[in-house]
Amino acid sequence: MEKNDELLMRAQAVLKTTFGYNEFRPMQKEVIASVLSGRDTLAVMPTGGGKSLCYQIPALLFGGITLVVSPLISLMQDQVASLVENGVSAVFLNSSLEWGDYLDAVQRIKSGSVKLVYLSPEALAADRTQSILHDASLPVSCITIDEAHCISEWGHDFRPEYRQLGLLADRYPQVPRIALTATADAETRADIKHYLKLENSPEFVASFDRPNIYY
Predict the structure, then answer these.
(1) For residues 141 and 88, what is the distance between their CA atoms, to the nearest angstrom?
(2) Structural contact between residues 133 and 109, judged by C-beta atoms closer than 8 angstroms
(3) For the chain, what is the radius of gyration of the CA atoms?
(4) Closest alpha carbon to 51 in 182, 145, 177
């Protein structure tokens, strides 16, 4: 059996045993397959389409840590709470944490007991965070940029801090990166791929009517 087929079978098992779903939603399987193959990937999927599973399932199959860049503290908190409820070890690093809770999260990361780390683009760029990740017992195996439309002036909620995320391609050249958003027209997608250095990456664009895949 090919390695990719085996990984997809394991992904299907994780979908069921960890998240309680019997079948993938439209385009989830294709995006997950791209990430598991080690390719940088852009995916545009509607709200409620199951974008988070496109990186959470690979995170549980990869050997190291998956970093998830998110623009809002509330999004991080909700995602981590949901993962913990499903028995997945996840933490977030942001300004909402008391100092003791922050140190506890850092210790868990360094000990290798965490699979997903949620943080803002500013936090990821900080020297302190890079030092923590460098000192962790598990390597970074995947990087997710959620709400990726924030990188584009064509998209709503433009955040200039997202522009610095293009440096990840140089800092982690062997680590697959997945950019996710629910809203991105052609100009916004072009911006995302340009600023994140994803020009040669597969692009998956789903609609409410039917999926379309662009290469």
Answers:
(1) 16
(2) yes
(3) 16
(4) 182
Predicted confidence (pLDDT) per residue in 69-93, tens digit = 998 899 999 999 999 999 999 999 9
Compute the distance between CA of residue 45 and CA of residue 207 in angstroms, rounded to an integer: 7
Cβ neighbours for 59, distance < 8 A, ≥ 6 positions apart: 66, 115, 116, 141, 142
**Residue 195 corresponds to which amino acid?**
Y
pLDDT digits (tens, 9 = 90+) for 142-153: 999 999 999 988
The rounded distance, in Å, linking the Cα atoms of 45 and 204 is 8
Residues contacting residue 2 through CB under 8 Å, at least 6 positions apart: none
Task: Report pTM.
Answer: 0.91
Token digits for 155? Answer: 């998209």
Token digits for 142? 């995947």
DSSP letters for 41-107: EEEE--TTS-TTHHHHHHHHHSSSEEEEE-S-HHHHHHHHHHHHHTT--EEEESTTS-HHHHHHHHH
